[in-house]
Amino acid sequence: MKLVDRNGRLFGKISIIDLLVIGVVAVMAVALYFKDSQPHTGTNVAEQDITFQIRARGVRSYVADALLVGDSLYDVDYPSGGRAIGQIVEIQVERTPGTTLASFSDGTASLVELEDSRDLLITVKGRGLSDGRSWSVNRVYDLGINSSRNYMTKQAQFTGTVADIW
Questions:
Q1: Contact between 99 and 111 (Cβ < 8 Å)
Q2: Cα 97–101–107 angle (5° rounding)?
Q3: Which end of the chain is flanked by fewer CB atoms within 10 Å, N or C?
Q4: Residues 78-124: pLDDT tens digits?
């Protein structure tokens, strides 16, 4: 009995081309198994609590009254993985009436009092990654000191600046 017959079949039963296709599929299946069984980048890094403070100047009184401890905080403009960036744990009134930055025609700018408003310092606690120099809430939402963002809760929306992160 010949190893390969005149029709190109191995031992007269299976084609060499079929055998090569089966071998390629088997190698691809093994490679895919090993690729998926290895830990993905970032999954071994444990998330930790990240606390940050947002300074909101000139928040209207009705908006300040709508902000409550325990509310979930979201960013209006930047995605955060579909989850809240944190939960409000403390709200401090820094100044009543609040202030806003006013620009004048001579090119100067200064803080001026804004009637029926408050300056707030809002402490928020979230979960994310940190190396001590950079912070990422929900692994996708980057925090930075002095970054001004538009925030919202279920009941209120305001603009604030990240004042501190720890």
A1: yes
A2: 145
A3: N
A4: 877 778 999 999 999 998 888 888 899 999 999 898 889 999 999 99
Q: What is the largest CA-CA distance in the chain?
A: 102
Q: Which two tokens stand for residue 164?
A: 């501190």
Give the SS3 label for residue 19.
helix
Query: Per residue in 58-86, is it b (16+ CB within 10 Å) or e — as a string?
Result: bbbeebbebbeeebebbeeeeebeeebbb
Count of residues in the chain: 166
Measured between alpha carbons, how far is residue 67 from residues 80, 97, 126, 143 in Å? 20, 17, 17, 21
Could you tell me the residue ranges of all domains in the chain? Answer: 1-38, 48-165
Count the helices and strands in the chain (H runs, E runs).
Answer: 2, 12
Residues contacting 96, CB < 8 A, separation 6+: 117, 118, 119
Torsion angle of the four alpha carbons 42, 147, 160, 133, in this order, in degrees rounded to the nearest 10: 50
Least Cα distance to 166 among 143, 148, 138 occurs for: 143
Instruction: Give the integer Cα–Cα distance in Å for 80 and 139.
Output: 8
